Amino acid sequence: AQSVAQPEDQVNVAEGNPLTVKCTYSVSGNPYLFWYVQYPNRGLQFLLKYITGDNLVKGSYGFEAEFNKSQTSFHLKKPSALVSDSALYFCAVSSDNDYKLSFGAGTTVTVRA
Amino acid sequence: AAGVIQSPRHLIKEKRETATLKCYPIPRHDTVYWYQQGPGQDPQFLISFYEKMQSDKGSIPDRFSAQQFSDYHSELNMSSLELGDSALYFCASSSRMGHFGWSNEKLFFGSGTQLSVL
Known about the structure:
The complex is a heterodimer of chains A (113) and B (118).
Chain A: E1 3-5, E2 10-14, E3 19-21, E4 24-26, E5 31-38, E6 44-50, E7 56-58, E8 64-68, E9 73-78, E10 87-95, E11 102-103, E12 107-112
Parallel strand pairs in A: 2-12
Antiparallel strand pairs in A: 1-4, 3-9, 5-6, 5-10, 7-8, 8-9, 10-11, 10-12
Chain B: E1 5-7, E2 10-13, E3 19-24, E4 31-37, E5 44-50, E6 53-57, E7 64-68, E8 74-78, E9 87-94, E10 108-109, E11 113-117
């Protein structure tokens, strides 16, 4: 079975400060990792994914994530947060053994002006 | 660019009624997934279709059924609705002809159908 943990229900940062949203995973086989963002009353939007290659993945809206195999983590980062980044962020995992996406519980990010 | 379209956007039903949710995938996408997201919950996988055949089944109640049609759109049929079925139902589509293969396809999500059962 595969699973994802997002240990923080909420993350609050000031605009202009670095933003980090944590994610750890558990899979059998090679992991495929994804970040999605959900704005109020909207569907999930894809931010970035790690399949293979460089551990640092760059995605949409200035977000990036670092795959750390030894720590089984895939934390989402943005060097300078914007108020418009306030949303619900989901980490998800699939693998070469199970292609279904399993989602974390989500982290609500609030960026204050 | 065309996105995944779901209809209706909002649906209000009473207990024991039936509901049909529709999903129109991105053109040339051959795979459709249905997810259920309860209030404050993470999305839960319900069922998926590849080339009009059911490819996987998750936590979908027996009261629900779904199919994918020849034009690749999909419908989720829900009967004997219960209060606990109130949720946001997402459809997602993808193409298994991606460069890296089917197991790491990127999903494109619709905006969802908000179902309220009263």
